[in-house]
Amino acid sequence: MDIPPPQVLKQPLKVPQKTLMGPGPSNCSPRVMNAISQPILGHMHPEIFKIMDDIKEGVRYVFQTTNPLTLVVSTSGHGGMEAVLCNLLEPGDVALITVNGIWGERAASMAARYGACVVTIETEPGNNFTLAQLENAVSKHRPRLLFVTQGESSSGVYQNVEGIGDVCHRYGCLLAVDTVASLGGVPLLADRWGVDAIYTGSQKVLGAPAGLAPISFSPRAQRRIFERKTPVKVLYWDMTVLGDYWNCFGRPRVYHHTISSQLLYGLREGLAMIAEEGLDNVMKRHQACAERFYRGLEKLELEPFVEDVHKRLPTVTSIKVPNNVDWRDVVTYAMKTYSVEISGGLGPTANQVFRVGLMGYNATLTNVDLVLEVLQEALDFARTRRRSKL
Length: 390
What we know:
Layout: E1 19-20, H1 30-35, H2 46-63, E2 69-73, H3 77-88, E3 94-99, H4 102-113, E4 117-122, H5 131-141, E5 145-149, E6 151-152, E7 157-158, H6 164-170, E8 174-178, E9 197-199, E10 213-217, H7 219-226, H8 239-245, H9 261-277, H10 279-299, E11 316-320, H11 327-338, E12 340-341, E13 343-344, E14 353-357, H12 365-389
Parallel strand pairs: 1-12, 3-4, 3-5, 5-8, 8-9
Antiparallel strand pairs: 2-10, 6-7, 9-10, 11-14, 13-14
Helix pairs in contact: 2-9, 10-12, 11-12
């Protein structure tokens, strides 16, 4: 052989144990970790089909929908965004995108790549949109699709979705909602609120490893997909094919791609744990953790980036970086000293905030107290380091 075996692969794999208190992924429970260690099965085995059917029921529960076209895409939550926009937009369609952080920016970029005429409605990071603002924009631009991010994890903002579906449908518009960082932490009633396309990621409140994106389309959106004048641009995202693999249309299952059995096991168990706890209790747990964290921040004399408590996302809290510290010193100290992840800002909040995630298995009062203690010590270290440089 021209190229020898790499020396690094002759060393044993070493994976450290870390407490992931950033905006995602979060740690998985022992039950989920045990599930993903089970034997590999083939992607067309009947046992896998049964697990996929179990997952569909769990996804319908967490989305609060009865949509037949409900399934999971083998991708991160980011790929769920791609799948929604790729299926629902054709060249020349008007797409109205709400932008108050990085995920609206990404959605606008994706929609443009699929040939849509993109219109954005924007507000500053740390703020959300009123129903009147959204209705004014929909009535003015008459879009084919309105895209809203329920939980903007780059800034920690919560967007209330209730009422937006009614506005959209009055003007013949579809409503797509990103719930990657919000699902399970705040109310979401897809059917009752008229959400036409919804997706999330497996690695946050759902408590599974990253790599799967639950997604669901309303009958209205499903008709839109099947009545397209042009084929879906990317075969991998095409719901008319993937839906058959997931048995959404009552037709024989057909091969679409080789799905990871291990990731399915983990998601199945994460959804089972949510079903056992109950969605209402899951949301109460996340809200209780967020409120305890807010009180702790006040004692540390730290300011939440989102001033209005009603606009705060309980699953991801953004915190203003004090003037007398370098945020890198804080996150580096937390990781090196305690193996606790605290993240910096992202996109429009880069260098401005810390972001702390309280999601899924990690959403406990014990973890809240841990991250507050680590944050205080890390801030003291960063302040001392700053003074020593002056």
